[in-house]
Request: fold
Amino acid sequence: MTERDVLVIGGGPAGAAAAIVAAEAGARVTVFEKGLPGRDKICGDGLTPRAVAALDQLGVDLGDAHRIDGLRMVANRTVRQLDWPGIPPFPAHGAVWPRRRLDLRLMELADKAGAELRWEHEATPVLDGRRVVGVSANGQEWRGDLVVVAAGAPGAVARLLGAERDQREPFGLAIRTYAESPRHAERYLEACLTLRDESGTAVPGYGWIFPAGDGTVNIGVGALSTMRGFKKLNLNRLQDSYRSLVQESWGLGPDLERPRAWRLPMSTVRRHGPGWVAIGDAAGLVNPMNGEGIDYGLESGMLAAELFLEDPITVPVRYDRIIGERFDAFLRTGRRFSFLIGHPTLLRTGLRFAVGTQGIANVTLQVMGNLVDSSTPGVGGVTMRVADRLLGLADPVLRATRAAA
Ligand SMILES: Cc1cc2nc3c(=O)[nH]c(=O)nc-3n(C[C@H](O)[C@H](O)[C@H](O)COP(=O)(O)OP(=O)(O)OC[C@H]3O[C@@H](n4cnc5c(N)ncnc54)[C@H](O)[C@@H]3O)c2cc1C
Reply:
């Protein structure tokens, strides 16, 4: 049996961020990743300014990423090209960084910081009563003061720890592929907010083209579970119909790989317990308003490691409290919002308003990107305060009248 300080299950952005911070400070860290180096993650590869700030904090050089200046919102015939606002502490730019390269870079940094990387190791928490005391993988056992669960959307590890998705809360599904495009070097993400399913029902979600700057674009669609008929929604067909919409304007070549779908967890019933914390997707930390989770993975990973360095014993309880203070209100508002836009009429009306003028569309971008909170001065902050309050009051009605079948 091997003794370590921190054992991290999962080598995505969340796990790597925790490992970098803990190892840099001298903790003995092992990361278990079931995939091989360079493994892919189904993702849009989009980094908001918030995610860029988190990468900066980790000391990651973004030279290999494609810089992005803003977002082009498309809603039927309305097109709004918006620059990232540059509201401190976030920079005025985002990026697109294909996950094969981003995740490998982060793991390389973890390695450089002194963490031990165990590729092709599928890890399982080891319990002593209710307390997680280590992990087992590939027939070996490791003991550690803290087990950081960074295993992505809940699966076997979450089931073992009772940390699954909260069934009462919404979640998302999204699909993506890559294609070559002459517009691959553009500096704006593009999002189409007016998707419809085969029966013509408005889909709460969006279709995206994210230029990667390497000859290719990432193209995909995502939908929230709050829509009527969600269980029957065929993501492949939704992807095909979005593709045909943008095929000509983006000069898209054939798909470079089969479109692949994955879950976007937006809640968890538990994100800590004796000896362990969950971070990133494993903690349900995905923004319901835009499906982004890389930033929350990085931030929660760094936080878990910082708290460990302060006091290894009390990490789980302090982590749960601080992560709650930082994200719970925003994510709760986002989930309530997703119930609201599950109703096609409200979605259509809301969208008309959200992109109605350039000024309102800018606020929509700030709110959706979690670049403002209710304490930020200006219209964005006021919007968050009002949305928090109103959606909170409407919560019981929203749940009782949810559109999803
Ligand atoms: C189609 C799609 C598009 C998206 N687009 C964006 C986007 O543009 N921007 C954005 O910010 N977010 C996006 N997201 C969300 C984003 O991909 C996730 O939020 C992010 O990957 C979460 O990082 P993580 O480190 O928590 O988990 P992951 O990236 O899922 O990493 C978890 C890792 O754990 C490993 N693992 C799992 N179980 C074990 C085990 N038992 N032992 C060892 N290893 C294990 C897995 O192999 C994996 O490498 C998208 C998601 C989808 C599905």
Notes: The chain has ten helices and 18 strands. The two ends are 49 Å apart (CA to CA).
